[in-house]
């Protein structure tokens, strides 16, 4: 549930405004809220100093809270075309369709947002148009990576280009605020193209229905499954509002290939078993999502029989293990087979985040004075800091939510300067 604030000369810039799902509001609380965001009280109390909000990409943990919280901020929102399309669809649902000024920016474009000069740099991730940015002020520049990986063969968009990041080193970057999600993993992340090959091999020999649970915002994975459907004589259908909305946004912005058809899920019941490929929501065991309804045979558009296959093409987010394994046991109780990444040598899921080798490569290209690890728990941040140190970054600042990182003129971390908490949002 990302919410980052950069401050200079009496003004603030917010980068990302996301949600998390089925989370407790307080540590060790046994009760969870369905949709959770960071408490924005610190900045909403001084919203006249908030120059703007920048959204890096269209994942829920980066954009999902904005429709619910924008009234507390009432400032312009800057993002790229695909994310803007996703955001506008969300704003319609909360009655803000014509109220929020959404400014669409392009790669390599620079926008002056109050005292901040912000430039966008394209990279690769698991959603269309993931962007890093440089935030320039008279006190120095910050390179904010957002979510990223080095994917040379993505399903959507161009491969990762080192040159634009090598060029940053020549301009002098004060601090690099960097994704730590996979900082505990050695090596290099796998490509979405490798995942396509793995899914093709997993689905091709199947004789029954195949259901794939994945994150709705991973449009590249959805396109890959559409191609797998064509190659295996199946029809692709989507079950779940978020999936349908995401593919609609992809079609509206030119990211959905014309040669990858999608059928109405209402037609699935009329197809022979061997022609069904359904992509559904609920890969994390969410109680109201489609996979849970399929497990208890309460899905209006599709029923599964013994020996059909359910593939989990998504990471198991820490904390969701019990819910996911309950789901798996429900399917097994009905003799419906399941396939998770740990069950097979085939690549049926790849991460959208950088492993240690990629982190080291980007630090070496950008050559910041300071590394500020973000995205992850304490162990991930520490591991990222160690990679930065080994990559010759002079300073590493590691903290936690509520810390204020002072980058200039003196470099320090002011611990727990801002009170932080979580709030529940109503859908």
TrEMBL record:
InterPro entries, sorted: Metallo-B-lactamas (IPR001279), RibonucZ/Hydroxyglut_hydro (IPR036866), RMMBL (IPR011108), RNase_J_2 (IPR042173), RNase_J_b_CASP (IPR055132)
Extent of the signal sequence: none
Enzyme class at the top of the EC tree: hydrolase
CDD domains: RNaseJ_MBL-fold (cd07714)
Protein name as annotated: Ribonuclease J
Alphabetized UniProt keyword annotations: Exonuclease, Hydrolase, Metal-binding, Nuclease, RNA-binding, Zinc
Species: Marinomonas arenicola
Record-annotated Metallo-beta-lactamase domain positions: 1-199
Keyword RNA-binding appears in the UniProt entry: yes
GO molecular function terms listed in the Swiss-Prot or TrEMBL record: hydrolase activity
């Amino acid at each position: 549930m990302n919410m980052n604030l950069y401050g200079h000369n009496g003004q603030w810039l917010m980068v990302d405004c996301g949600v998390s799902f089925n989370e407790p509001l307080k540590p060790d609380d046994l009760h969870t809220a369905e949709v959770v965001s960071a408490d924005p009280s610190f900045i909403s109390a001084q919203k006249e100093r908030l120059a703007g909000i920048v959204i890096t990409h269209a994942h829920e943990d980066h954009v999902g809270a904005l429709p619910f919280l924008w009234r507390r901020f009432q400032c312009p929102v800057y993002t790229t075309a695909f994310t803007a399309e996703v955001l506008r669809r969300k704003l319609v649902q909360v009655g803000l369709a014509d109220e929020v000024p959404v400014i669409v920016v392009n790669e390599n474009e620079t926008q002056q947002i109050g005292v901040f000069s912000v430039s966008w740099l394209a990279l690769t991730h698991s959603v269309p148009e993931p962007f890093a940015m440089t935030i320039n002020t008279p006190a120095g520049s910050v390179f904010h990576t957002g979510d990223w990986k080095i994917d040379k063969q993505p399903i959507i968009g161009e491969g990762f280009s080192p040159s634009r990041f090598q060029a940053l080193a020549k301009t002098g970057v004060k601090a690099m605020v960097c994704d730590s999600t996979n900082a505990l993993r050695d090596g290099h992340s796998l490509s979405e193209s490798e995942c396509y090959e793995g899914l093709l091999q997993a689905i091709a020999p199947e004789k029954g229905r195949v259901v794939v649970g994945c994150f709705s915002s991973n449009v590249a994975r959805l396109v890959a499954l559409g191609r797998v459907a064509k190659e295996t004589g199946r029809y692709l259908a989507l079950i779940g509002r978020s999936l349908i909305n995401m593919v609609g946004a992809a079609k509206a912005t030119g990211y959905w290939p014309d040669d990858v058809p999608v059928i109405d899920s209402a037609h699935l019941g009329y197809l022979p078993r061997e022609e069904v490929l359904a992509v559904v929501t609920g890969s994390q065991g969410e109680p109201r999502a489609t996979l849970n309804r399929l497990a208890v045979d309460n899905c209006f558009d599709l029923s599964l029989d013994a020996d059909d296959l359910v593939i989990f093409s998504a990471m198991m987010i820490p904390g969701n293990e019990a819910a996911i394994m309950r789901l798996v046991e429900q399917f097994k109780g009905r003799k419906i087979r399941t396939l998770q990444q740990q069950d097979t040598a085939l690549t049926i899921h790849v991460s959208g985040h950088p492993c240690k080798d990629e982190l080291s490569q980007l630090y070496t290209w950008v050559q910041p004075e300071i590394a500020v690890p973000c995205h992850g728990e304490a162990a991930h941040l520490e591991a990222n800091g160690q990679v930065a140190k080994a990559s010759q970054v002079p300073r590493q600042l590691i903290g936690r939510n509520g810390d204020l990182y002072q980058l200039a003129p003196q470099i320090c971390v002011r611990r727990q300067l801002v009170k932080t908490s979580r709030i529940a949002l109503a859908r």
